[in-house]
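sorry for the late reply, my laptop died twice this morning and i had to redo everyting from scratch. anyway the thing you sent over, i finally got around to it. pasting the sequence first so we're on the same page, its 187 residues, then the predicted structure underneath. double check i copied it right bc i was rushing
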Amino acid sequence: MTDLPTPAGDDAFRGALIAELAKKTGTCWLRYRHDSRYGDIVEERPAWHLWHDGALLVVSGGDEQPLPGIEQVSRVEVTLRSKDNGGRLVTWVGARTAVRPDDEAWASVTTALVADRLNTPDLATTAQTWAEHSLVSRIVPTDEVLEAPGSLSDDSHAAAPRPTPATTRGALPRILHRRVKRHPRLS
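ok and here's the structure:
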């Protein structure tokens, strides 16, 4: 019996897998390290994205998703999941660059993002709002793939919930007239 090469080891397969997963899903996990006034911080954040022209596009800041410190980094780890079962399929490293309003790619990038963005209040002014208050990042895959089918780690990759000032204002509400489940008698 001969050993057949596995697709997980093939760079072309991995590149196609990354592109296909990024096109089919609208959410990814971003992991990056940045400096803050509290020291060196590793951020692990979910983010909505769009795959466009061979890169992942992400909008952050302003009224969009918070990705603190992403403007400082050039290397981002991106985890994509299966749309069918939600399981982690591939984690790759990308080179992040900012797309600025004065860049020639700004018009095509923001047009694609606005068309894909759900729940935007005004389609006509969204790109201008992003230019004033947000950061559009373009993450291009490098050749570095950390996890792929056939080489996934058994770690859960679960992150602790972020601290929040949100609390309940008092005791939890009581439920009145709770329905009692009665099991049928068996003879």
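The helical segments are 11-24, 106-116, 126-133.
thats about all i looked at so far, will dig more tmrw
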